[in-house]
Design goal:
The chain is of the alpha/beta class. The protein is built from 17 helices and 13 strands. It starts with 6 loop residues before the first strand and ends in a 9-residue tail after the last helix. The structure holds uridine-diphosphate-N-acetylglucosamine (UD1). The site of uridine-diphosphate-N-acetylglucosamine has 19 residues, from helix 1, helix 5 and helix 11.
Length: about 375
């Protein structure tokens, strides 16, 4: 980015995982007098607990533009974001658009900017599950290929990008912005004592999250996971904050009653960031199909069982506390029992997951001018 003049940077968010990633960047950009920092919320997530609650907990400023796209098929959602975001970019003529993560909103906004010859920075670039059945894999791959700055969380992501032919001059390994947020809010989350509020002592319960279409949109797949859960519940209570997609599927598949009957299972609405991290840090272990939670558990040293066949975050399994175990009920029960019997991996926190990733991003933007072929 050139040094002179006041530059306009549009930061984009669409849904829950994006908020956690943009918060430290907004903070890092805030004191820079030569940068006009704008925030666009596409409205992909709109429920209070999926959106507003995160703005409050993470002290994110009000969006300058709210696109209100809401839910829909992938085509509808992506198309609506493209149409609405193009209007914003044409009005504002930013010098840079920053997108984070792998949501439909991420790809849509990156595409709009690239086609209007506005430089794009992708934060959390280079992650690959090598599983094209995940919408996120398509979103992250295409976003990377139209971006000018690729900010990666770990060296494996750099390797993926180089293998795909992306010039290494565009790739900057800066660490993990999600961990910036975690480090900042860890003390506040600890003080929240969310487990105590549920009558649970630290390290006596497990935490479960599920929302991947492959796990919750197919009744047979969802049912298999529930069987694994049923097998482990007698040994350990489980807290399950239910994502809106998952809540809808439970109702559609007639599984709500079955879950409610499980004595040791605590169902609740999606939690705010501080309440969730509070439960996470005090849990005995976590079961999840989320991407970000694999990283947060590794950073906190909490054991994590990933209920998927693959991960785009292999470093959490290589260095951290993550085990990618699939979704077979017997395997879920066995791996949970293993952890309850004390067979835990201590793990290490990956390099550069130190709470300073956003500062490194700003530093790179200052030191590396926009590539000339895209400079407006
Ligand atoms: C999206 C992301 C996924 C991310 C997840 C985190 C894509 C393709 N997927 O999946 O990568 O891990 O967010 O939550 O971008 N809904 C509500 N209220 C809301 C938001 C959603 O009721 O505030 C319901 C709607 O019925 C919607 C469904 O949840 O159809 C799915 O929402 P959507 O944003 O399409 O995808 P997620 O499953 O949330």
């Amino acid at each position: 980015m050139p040094e002179q003049g006041r530059l306009t940077v549009i930061n984009v968010v669409g849904g829950r995982p994006n908020f956690v990633k943009i918060a430290p960047l907004m903070e890092a950009l805030q004191p820079l007098r030569d940068i006009r920092r704008l925030l666009v919320h596409t409205g992909q997530h709109y429920d209070h607990e999926m959106s507003r609650a995160f703005f409050e907990d993470l002290e994110i400023p009000e969006p300058d533009f709210f696109l209100g796209v809401g839910s829909g098929s992938h085509a509808q959602q992506t198309a609506k974001v493209i149409v609405e975001f193009e209007k914003v970019v044409q009005e504002v003529r930013p010098d840079l658009v920053v997108v984070v993560g792998d949501l439909n909103s991420t790809l849509a906004c990156a595409l709009v900017a690239a086609k209007l010859l506005i430089p794009v920075a992708h934060v959390e670039a280079g992650l690959r599950s090598f599983d094209r059945t995940m919408a996120e894999e398509i979103n992250r791959t295409l976003t990377d290929h139209v971006s000018d700055y690729l900010f990666t969380p770990s060296a494996d992501a750099d390797d993926n990008l180089v293998r795909e032919g992306i010039p290494s001059a565009k790739i900057f390994c800066v660490g993990n912005v999600m961990i910036d947020t975690l480090r900042k809010y860890e003390p506040m989350a600890r003080a929240r004592q969310a487990a105590a509020a549920l009558g649970l002592a630290p390290r006596t319960y497990a935490l479960l999250t599920l929302h991947r279409p492959s796990n919750v949109d197919d009744p047979a797949a969802f049912e298999r996971i529930l069987r694994g859960l049923e097998a482990m519940l007698p040994r350990c209570p489980v807290v399950f904050p239910v994502h809106p997609r998952t809540r809808r599927r439970l109702a559609e598949f007639g599984l709500e009653k079955r879950l409610e009957r499980l004595g040791n299972l605590r169902l609740c609405a999606p939690l705010s960031y501080l309440a969730f991290v509070s439960l996470l840090m005090e849990s005995r272990f976590v079961m999840t199909d989320s991407g970000g939670i694999q990283e947060e558990t590794t950073a906190l040293g909490v054991p994590c069982l990933t209920l998927r066949e693959n991960t785009e975050r292999p470093i959490t399994a290589e260095l951290g506390t993550n085990r990618v175990i699939g979704t077979h009920p017997d395997r879920i029960a066995t791996e949970a029992a293993r952890l309850l019997d004390g067979d835990e991996r201590r793990g290490q926190v990956p390099p550069l997951w130190d709470g300073k990733a956003a500062l490194r991003i700003v530093d790179v933007l200052r030191r590396h001018p926009v590539p000339s072929e895209v400079a407006p």
